[in-house]
Amino acid sequence: VVYLTKSAIGATLKDVLALPEGSKVFFDxxxxxxxxxxxxxxxxxxxxxxxxEPMITFLPIAEWMRWLAQLGxxxxxxxxxxxxxxxxxxxxxxxxxxxxxxxxxTA
Length: 107
Prior knowledge:
The protein has about 110 residues and is of the alpha+beta class. About 40% of the residues lie in helices and about 15% in strands. The protein contains four helices and three strands, in the order H-E-H-H-E-H-E. The protein has a three-stranded antiparallel sheet with strand order 1-3-2. The longest helix has 12 residues, at about 5-15. It is globular. It starts with 5 loop residues before the first helix and ends with a strand. The model has no long low-confidence stretch (mean pLDDT about 85).
């Protein structure tokens, strides 16, 4: 969703809300930079910009949660990198770890 404007994200989420009751949407929610240099994040942003897809929308998790509830999602779950690791990465032998926060929303 970082490639979309906030109004485009809102329009898309309203479309999701029009789906049958119990429908879900799962998406990544990259956080705004917190004054700490993150070379991997900088490389992702540069790569995206180089192909004409700049990352433009970053919201704090609390703002996502508030906004999704205001839009009308009946359930919004913040899935942390730690929870993602425990569920999907823990038994990996290559050391790969999740790096993003995710949101699971129920319409």
